[in-house]
Amino acid sequence: MIDRDQVLHVARLARLRLTDAEVEAMTGELSTILDHIEKIGELDLDDVVPTSHVVALENVLRRDEPRPSLPREVALDQAPDSDGVGFRVPSPGA
Amino acid sequence: MAEVAYEPVIGLEIHVQLKTATKMFCGCALSFGEEPNTRTCPVCLGLPGTLPVVNEQAVRYGLEIGLALGCELAPRSIFHRKNYFYPDLPKGYQVSQYDIPLARDGRLGDVRIHRVHLEEDAAKLVHAGASGRIHSAEASDVDFNRGGTPLVEIVSEPDLRDAASAAEWLRLLRATLRRLGVSDVNMEEGSLRCDANVSLRPAGSEQLGVKTELKNMNSFRFIERGIDAEIARQEGILRGGGRIEQETLHYDVRSGAISSLRSKEEAHDYRYFPEPDLVPIVPTAEMVERARAAIPELPADRAARFAGELGLAEGQARLLAFRTEVGDFYEAALAAGAGAVEAPALANWTCNDLLAALGEGADPAGSKVTPAALAGLVGMVSAKEISNSAAREVLAKLVADGGDPAAIVAAAGLGRADEGELAAVVERAMADQADAVEKVRAGNAKAIGAIVGAVMRETKGRADGGEVQRLIRERL
Amino acid sequence: MSAAADAFAAVFGPRSGDPSRAVEHTAAELVAAVGAGTLSPAEIWSEYATLAAGDELNAYLWRAAEDPGADAAAPLAGVPLAVKDLFCTEGVPSAAASRILEGYRPPYTATVVERLAAAGAPMLGKTNMDEFAMGSSNENSAFGAVANPWDRERVPGGSSGGSAAAVAGGIAPWAIGTDTGGSIRQPAALCGIVGLKPTYGTVSRYGMIAFASSLDQAGPLTRDVTDAALLLRHMVGGDACDSTSTGHPGEIELPTAERLDGVRFGVPPELTGDGVEPGVRAVFEAALARIEELGGSVTEVPLPHSGHAISAYYVLAPAEASANLARFDGVRYGRRAAADGDLLSLYEQTREEGFGPEVKRRIMLGTYALSSGYYDAYYGRAQRVRTKIAEDFAAAFDQVDLIVCPTSPTVAFKLGERTADPLAMYLSDVLTVPMSLAGIPAISIPGGLADGLPVGIQLAGPAFAENRILDAALALERAIDFRSQAAARG
Q1: pTM of the full predicted structure?
Q2: N or C: which end of chain B has fewer CB within 10 A?
Q3: ipTM of the complex
C-alpha cells in the first residue's frame, strides 16, 4: 500500500511534477503492484546474502593515462541552453 | 547557581583531491584552470549509455592514505550511488563509497580516523548573471572540468575538543598527505576541503550533543574562527534554554555570521544502493605491498625523530617535519655538513634565518641557496670563523645570487678579525671612548656597550661581541 | 500483395526460388551468397533500404540514407543490421523512444554497434521500442506502437518490439535488441523469430542507454538459430569501457547439432503451470515430444523461488532505473521544458513532460523501494530473492543441461489489451525474468503456432553455455521446422 502523501513525497524525490490525475492513478496502480511485490515478505531470507552483481569480477581498474577530451563545442552541442562556454541553468536557490 | 561548563566535541570531514593524471572514472586529464568545459568526455558529462571505470592510481593513493593513517583496509569494498539532483552532478547521483569504505579505524596523532573512502568530485557552478532566456531569473553556468576528479574523503572521530587543536591536527593531516605526494592539499585552490562537525555537551558527560555540520572553510584561520563561532553560537542557544538543531551551516568569513545552508525543508534521502556499473575492489597482497612501499617517513614520525635523535626544539622539529620541503632541505644540508655542523644550530638557521630571508611559504629547494652552502655557512659560524652578523650578510648574498659562502666571505673580507688586529682596534676604541671607560670603571657596566659598538663599527661586524667584551675587560 | 506483406511472406512463406531476392534468405545465407558472388553488399543494402523505407509496422524510428559501402570480405559481408533505439550511435538520433531524448544525437557509438559495423554489419536503421526499454508490448514508445506482422492488431511484444517486428516482417535481415527481463526473448516469441539473451557481461553495455544496469544485456534477434550464433559471435567480447564486461570464454561456434542424444532437459513446473494458456501449452508439449524424439531426456526440475521473480525484478529493475534516469534533467542534452522560474521547476517540468506514464511509474516504484525506511523491506529483500533464484538455477543445472519452458505465457495480445493494467503487463515477463535475475543465457525459438500466432520455446543454460544452447536450439529448430508450419498456415 502507498498513500497519496507518500506518492507526492516520492514524486518530489524523483523530481516528477505529477498532475492531480496522475497522482490519483499512480496511488492505485502502485498500491496494486506493491501488494503483489510484498509477497516476498513471506520468504525467510534472514541468512541469505544479497546479490547486487552476477558477474564474478573484481578489481577492474583503468590505467591512469589521459585520453583526449571532447572539444568544447562538441560537449555543449546538445545543450538545451548554453552560452558557448557552459551549460546554462537557473541559479540554485535563485 | 553555578553555570554549567560545556565541552565542545569536534570531528572533521576532509575531502582531498587526488593528484592523479586523470579523473576517477574516465580518461579526461584533471583540470587546472583550463577554459570551462574543455576537460570533459561522454563519461564525465553523464551522457546516456556511458559507464565508469575506476582509476587504478586513485585506488593506490586511497590505499596509501588508509595505510598512512593506520587504518584497516577493507578486504572487499564497493561503490554506491548517492542520489540527489543538482546541476553540478551530471548523472543525478554521485558514485561514492558507503557502508564498506576502502579503509577504516585508523589514527593520526591523538585523533582516531573513522573512515577513508573514494568518490568523485562534483562539477562547478559559476554564476552567470541575469539570463535573457530564463526570464529575469539569475542564471549559472555549469563547468564540468572539475566533475569526476578523484576525491578521498577522510572522516575523523569526534576526538577534538577545541578549534585550535582542530586546526593543528588538520595541519598534521595536510603535512601527512603532502608527504605521501597524493594531493596538492591546497585549501585556497580547493584540493583540500574541510567540514567540521561540532556539538557541545556538559563537561564530564559522556553523551554526545546534537551536532551541526560547518561546511567548506577554506583556510586554517577560518576553520579556527568558524569552529569558535559555532561553539559560541551553540553555547548561547543552550544557555538560553534552547535546543540545537541538526543542520548544515555556512560560516561567512567576512561577517563572521553563521547561517543555515538548507533553507527549504526537505529531509535528505540519498537512496544509496550498490553501484551496478562497478565491481568490488579487493586489494591483493601485491596492491597492499606496493602501497605500503610507497609510504615515506611521515611527518609525525619525522618530528619525533628530529626531536629525539637530533635534539631539536619541538617547535622546530614540527616545522621541519610538517613542511616536507623544508625538512628535506634541512636534512640535505645536514648531510652536506657531514658532522661539521650541529643539527640544532642548522635547524635554527634553517627555520629562522633562511625561511625569513626567502619569504613566507617559499620552497628552499627552489632558491639559489644550496643545502651545501647553508651547511658551509653554519659550519663557519660554529667554527667561529665568522660572526653571526657577518653570516647573515653572507646568507643575504646567497639568497640573492647563490654561490659558495667561503668565497663570499673571502671576497668581502668578512672573515673574523684576528686577535692582533682586534686588540689594536679595541685599544684605539678605548682611547677614543675615554668617558665610557671611566663610567665602566665607576661601576656602570652598561657603558661598555659604547666601546663594543665602536669596535664593531670599525670591524664592520667581523668581530664576535663576546670576544670584544673580553678584550675590553682585560684592559680595564 | 503490398510490399510489406510480400516481405513477410518471403520470411515465413514458401520460397520463390529466386536466389537474387535478398529478403528470402537468412543472414547467414546472404553472407554465403556474397562469398559465392551471387549477391553483392550493395544489392543487399539497396533491397533492404527500400523495404525499410516501406515500413508499415512503425518498426523503424530512423533509417540510414546512404549505403555505407560495406566490405564484402568482412565476416558479416555487409548484411545490414537494425539497431534498437536504446543504442547510442554517433550523430544519429538515439532517443530510447523517449520524448525526453527526442532529437538527441550522441557524440559516440555504442561498443557493440561499432563491433558489428567493423565485422561488416552496417546499421540499416534504428528500431522502435518501449520507452527506455520499459514494457512488454512496445506500446510505451513515445513514437507510437509497433504492429505485429502476423496480425497488425496485435503487439509485437517488447521492449525490443521494433527489432523483432522488423526481422519478422522481412524489413531487416537481422537486428540487435536488449533484454533486461525478457525484452529480446518475449518479442522474438511473439513475432515467430529467434531471440537470444546472452550471459550477463558477455556483451559490452557501453553505449546502451541504461535501464537496469545489473540486468541489461544486448543480444541478437534473427530469423533462425544460425543467424543468432553468427551475429552473437561478433557481439561478445570484453570492453575496457565496461567494468562489468567479461567477454565469452570461448568463441561462439556456429551450431551443427542434428540430434539431442544424451542432452538432459529440465522442465520447471513453476514456469509451465498456471497462467500458461492452452495453445501455448500444446505447442510446448509438442516441443518436448520433439526433444525426446531427437534423443534428449526430459525431467522435471524445480525452481522453487521463480514464483517470486517478478516481485524481485519489479523492485530491482525500477530501483536501478530510478537512478539511471536521473541524468535526464534538461541540462546537458535532450528536452528541456519551457519552465520559467527556478531550478526545481525546470527539473520537475522537464521530467514530467519528457517521460511517459510507464517510465514515471517505474521511477516512482524504484524511488520508493530505495527510500528511507523502505530499502530493507523492498530492495534488500529483492536482492536476497535474487540470490535464491540464482541458487535454484545452479541446483537445477546440477541435474540437467538445459532448462526448457515457454517464453511467454500467451501469444501476441491485442494492442491496448493490457495498457490499463500495469500488473497484468508485468506478468507477461513471468517466464523470462528468472533467467535475467540469475544472469544466465536463454534463447527463444519459434515452436509452432497457436491460433495462427507464433509461440516461443525458451532454452536456458548455465552462464557462458551459449554454445550448448545454440546447438540444442538448432537441433530443435530443424525438427520443428517452423517455416513449414507457418507456410502451411497460408
Answers
A1: 0.90
A2: N
A3: 0.97
